[in-house]
Amino acid sequence: MTYTLHAERRLRDQICHIGRLMHQFQYIDGASGNISVRLDDNRILATPSGLAKGFMKPEELIVVDIDGNKAGPGTASNRDLRPTSEILMHLECYKKRPDVMGVVHAHPPTAVALTIAGVSMQQCTIPEAIVILGLIPTTPYATPSGPENRDAISELIEKHDAIMLAYHGSLTVGPDIWTAYLRLESLEHSAKILYMAQQLGGGPSLPPEQVAKLLEMREKLGLARPGDNERYCDHCGVCHPTGTHVYPEAKPEPEPSEIEQLVRARVHEVVQDIIKSAQ
What share of the chain is helix, strand, coil (3-state, %, to 5)? Predict the structure, then answer.
């Protein structure tokens, strides 16, 4: 897909609008975060380094080639601006995922806090998150703004539309930049729910049969990613050989030891004595 000049202008406006939303809802602060859109096979429209994303102007966005080099004619507003320091991570998404047309990197505070506290977002507890986002993995810590971050997401991005970068931030992608941004909103909203649930003492995951129904919905909506079945089998007990939902058989309880048998027998006697005395 190649965007016309008119469409590119609209994309510039949309990126700036998303930047304002990210700042407004505190998914970023200062000059952090970055946004990009694939214009064609070799050109990426991206936020530049050092600008506050909540206050950008459309003409300040820059175009880079697939290797991250500044490309195309510049403007007076962006002539001296450099590509975002996270450009390698964005480019890796586009190289690994031909279907990805938009990438958003943010620092959503609740979701990042969960990575610091060691709380995984690969949980089967929030129906909407299962359908829209799938399981959300967390990468090992990698130094921001360099090749380490690119390498940390390289394999995961092929299988996930939302990823947490440990101690750092989030990465969401989509078939367009608006979808990538909305996935950021869903990710942070889910993180807040998980955080509050932890504060209230936690709770059980959804039963496997309910997760299976949500996965069917996810597939019908065209949101499933390669390896979903195996991941949900590992994390939620929902296994799908040959496309059929199969739930792991319950393991039989171990036989009670001799001491346990004696204790149970004695408890039974005491209960019976209590019942007789009450009659």
Answer: 45, 15, 40
Q: Which two tokens stand for residue 109?
A: 């505070």
User: For residue 160, is it within any domain?
Assistant: yes
Count of domains for the chain? 1
Residue 33: Cβ within 10 Å count: 26
What is the domain-level CATH number for residue 145?
A: 3.40.225.10
Residue 276 lies in a domain: no
**Of 8, 59, 60, 86, catalytic:** 86
- What are the tens digits of pLDDT across the range 162-205? 999 999 999 999 999 999 999 999 999 999 999 999 999 988 99
DSSP single-letter state for residue 207: P
The Cβ of residue 79 has, within 10 Å, a number of other Cβ atoms equal to 10
Instruction: Tell me, yes or no, whether 162 lies in a domain.
Output: yes
Place of tokens 């007076």: 76
Its pTM stands at 0.82
CB 51 within 8 A of CB 83: no
**Structural domain span for residue 159:** 5-199
Is 70 in a helix, a strand, or coil?
strand
**C-beta contacts of 12-16 below 8 A and 24+ residues apart:** 12/45, 12/58, 12/59, 12/61, 13/58, 14/177, 14/178, 15/45, 15/47, 15/56, 15/58, 15/61, 15/177, 16/56, 16/57, 16/58, 16/61
Burial 216-252 (b: 16+ CB within 10 A, else e): eebeeeebbeeebbebbbeebbbbeeeeebeeeeeee
Assigned domain for 79 exists: yes
Residue-wise pLDDT for 52-107, tens only, equals 999 999 999 999 999 999 887 666 667 788 888 899 999 999 999 999 999 999 99
Decide if 92 is catalytic: no
